[in-house]
């Protein structure tokens, strides 16, 4: 990161919450006052009927329209983190 940059985006292996494995995800690292904070930008999930049918999920789950161009094997959804 150069002196002018406050953040960088990296591709890191992120561990699943149940710690059974992980996947590569975009992660942003923010530097401020000689400290750094890193967090996952978004989660990507395989297609589930609940994502397209339940109104609850429509506020934060977005279908990836061209999943194959994104390097995914299945129809997938991304989750916007708050």
From TrEMBL:
Entry superkingdom: Bacteria
Protein known as: Uncharacterized protein
Organism this protein belongs to: Lentilactobacillus parafarraginis DSM 18390 = JCM 14109
């Amino acid at each position: 990161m150069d002196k002018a940059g406050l953040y960088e985006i990296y591709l890191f292996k992120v561990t699943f919450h149940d710690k059974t494995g992980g996947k590569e995800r975009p992660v942003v690292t923010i530097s401020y006052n000689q400290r750094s904070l890193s967090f996952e930008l978004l989660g990507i999930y395989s297609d589930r009927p609940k994502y397209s049918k339940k109104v609850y999920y429509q506020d934060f789950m977005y279908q990836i329209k061209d999943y194959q161009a994104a390097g995914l094997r299945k129809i997938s959804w991304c989750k916007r983190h708050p």
